[in-house]
From TrEMBL:
One of its GO terms (molecular function) is kinase activity. It is found in: Cell membrane. This is histidine kinase. Residues 41-257 form the Histidine kinase domain. It is an enzyme of class 2 (transferase). The keyword Lyase does not apply. It comes from Effusibacillus consociatus. Its EC number is 2.7.13.3. The chain holds residues 106 to 362 of 362 of the full protein. It comes from the Bacteria. It is a multi-pass membrane protein. The keyword Transcription regulation does not apply. Its main location: membrane. Keywords: ATP-binding, Cell membrane, Kinase, Membrane, Nucleotide-binding, Phosphoprotein, Transferase, Transmembrane, Transmembrane helix, Two-component regulatory system.
């Protein structure tokens, strides 16, 4: 049914993206309704930052707004969001087609995670959030794709920072677990997630509060990517949360992978 597909005319980034849409749409449950909703979401998500940036440029061209560093920074921010959306969509489509290959190497998870947490501390500090890393245990060496687990952590940590008010607290911990292998958790003292939404938040483009999330700079794809990448490693991801109290996102990594 090519009528429902994006026509691919070039092989540049946009061409690649169109291909990604098509293969993702093909991998979705083939109901008319699903497909329509999926395209509508993508169009909406891409058009939004593009429109904001275009209007700002036009306002400058028309002389309505004088060019300034601040204006350029706003436009740049929208461009960054577009770039992130494209990268995220491509990763998701590769992963859901089984085309995303992991480059695994033996990793001391404790040292690896503590460096990632260290890097995120600067972001957290800007909001007066305390970010700490705790593990008393000795964690066995794991075979992981460092870049991809870094991406998982980055998504979980930036969500935690975004949904935690000033002065809050985020704790990352790792522990060994008989059943699951190793479990990594990111716990925040943020807004929490309503119980009825917990099941849906790992879906593409799902947001508890659309307008608010967009303002805080999310793409709506972060958790869907986390899920795919963790499952590619043979692990699982889950969340516990209490509205107004905070959330705890955990993922497991098997010992032998
Ligand atoms: P987004 O880019 O919107 O953050 P995600 O897939 O990363 O997309 O997250 C989906 C939704 O899950 C978010 O819009 C938000 O409503 C909710 N969410 C994710 N992480 C947290 C968190 N730590 N605290 C509260 N809500 C969260």
């Amino acid at each position: 049914d090519l009528g429902e597909r994006v026509q691919v005319k070039s092989d540049d980034e946009i061409g690649q993206l169109a291909k990604s849409f098509n293969s993702m749409a093909a991998s979705l449950e083939q109901t008319e309704e699903n497909r329509r909703a999926f395209y509508a979401d993508i169009v909406h998500e891409l058009r939004n930052p593009l429109t904001v940036a275009r209007c700002r440029v036009e306002a400058m061209m028309d002389g309505m707004v004088p060019p300034s560093e601040q204006e350029l920074a706003s436009i740049h921010k929208e461009m960054l969001l577009l770039t992130r959306l494209i990268t995220d969509l491509r990763d998701l489509s590769l992963a859901s087609n089984g085309q995303l290959t992991l480059h695994k190497q033996e990793t001391d998870l404790r040292t690896f995670l503590s460096r990632i947490v260290q890097e995120a501390t600067i972001l957290a500090q800007k909001k007066g959030i305390s970010l700490s890393f705790s593990t008393g245990q000795i964690i066995p060496v794991l075979n992981i794709d460092q870049e991809r687990i870094n991406q998982v952590m980055h998504n979980l940590l930036s969500n935690a920072i975004r949904h935690t008010p000033n002065g809050g607290r985020i704790v990352v911990d790792i522990k060994e677990d008989k059943k699951h292998g190793v479990i990594v958790s990111v716990q925040d003292s943020g807004t929490g997630i309503p119980e009825e939404e917990l099941e849906s938040i790992f879906e593409r483009f799902y947001r508890v509060d659309r307008s608010r999330s967009r303002k805080t700079g999310g793409t709506g794809l972060g958790l869907a990517i986390v899920k795919q990448l963790v499952e590619l490693h043979g692990g699982k991801v889950w969340v516990e949360s209490q509205l107004g109290q905070g959330s705890r996102f955990s993922f497991s990594l098997p010992l032998t992978s």
